[in-house]
Amino acid sequence: MQQRRIGDTTVSAIGLGAMPLSTKEDRPGPEEAEAVVHAALDSGVTLIDTADAYARDEGEFGHNEELVARALRSYGSAPDVLVATKGGHTRRGSDWELDGSPAYLRRACEASLRRLGVDAIDLYQFHRPDPATPWEESMGALRELADAGLVRTVGISNADVAQIDVARSIVGPALVSVQNQFSPGWRHSRDELAHCAGHGLAFLPWSPFGGVSAAGSLDAAAPAFAEVAEELGVSVYRVTLAWHLAQADVVVPIPGASRAGSIQDSAAAAEVELTPEQLARLDA
Ligand SMILES: NC(=O)c1ccc[n+]([C@@H]2O[C@H](COP(=O)([O-])OP(=O)(O)OC[C@H]3O[C@@H](n4cnc5c(N)ncnc54)[C@H](OP(=O)(O)O)[C@@H]3O)[C@@H](O)[C@H]2O)c1
Predict the structure, then answer these.
(1) Which pTM does this prediction carry?
(2) How many angstroms separate the CA atoms of 197 and 249, rounded?
(3) 233-243: per-residue pLDDT in tens?
(4) Does residue 212 line the site of ligand 1, with CB under 6 A?
């Protein structure tokens, strides 16, 4: 599979978004979920995106991180995988809440370290700006986690251009990525994507198909993508990810999957070649 960079680390151009394995209503059982992660690894995927808050509710906080850690342990050979997790979202019942305070982020990071069973987290991403905590304070907390060696690199998520610049100045070279929503039907992060490309930061588009509930109707929602898929004889999902990859060489999509077939198909997107004319139609 084609490779890309996140900081100094080389990763597969297509990652696995592990969220649906925990949050999808009809999520697979534990063994089937591990098999999905194994299928991703078998397909050459070396980036897995998780978060402490990926769970059905507060009672199983950490569900997705534990699942990913278990699947990596049971894979057989020790795969060289970059595990990217996140902190800053809390759960109250099944609701999603925020806490970007430095004290909370330190506790959350330590809990993620335990669940992932590692000494340092490869990529620790601040999940979402918390309006109750100044952005600078959250960024200062991330810098401290990196300085203390608890995290190897830092990312931010759901950030605008101004927040990216503040993060660059406070976190320094440990900041390597930005994860924002970006899909055929949701392109509002274009400026952030271009900013990342200009500063050598990886850009991880989340919900590349519009999210778990919209992904099934991608054909109808993105007719130009369906048309190109038909021309190339591949799935609309592969064409979508190929379009993401063509935006800039810092882009590393993280399509979600709760079935092995989904990530196997998505992983092959790195091999799809779009002509300039096809790209222009998709960009329009
Ligand atoms: N930072 C943030 O705030 C944030 C927010 C949301 C998501 N994320 C991250 O982004 C990742 C991706 O987003 P997402 O999971 O919400 O949505 P998504 O990737 O847009 O859609 C996921 C769904 O697409 C289906 N799918 C994937 N590849 C397919 C293929 N090749 N053929 C057919 N169906 C396919 C899967 O179906 P099956 O379930 O049937 O396999 C899956 O449920 C998440 O897993 C998570 O890691 C981050």
Answers:
(1) 0.98
(2) 7
(3) 999 999 999 99
(4) yes
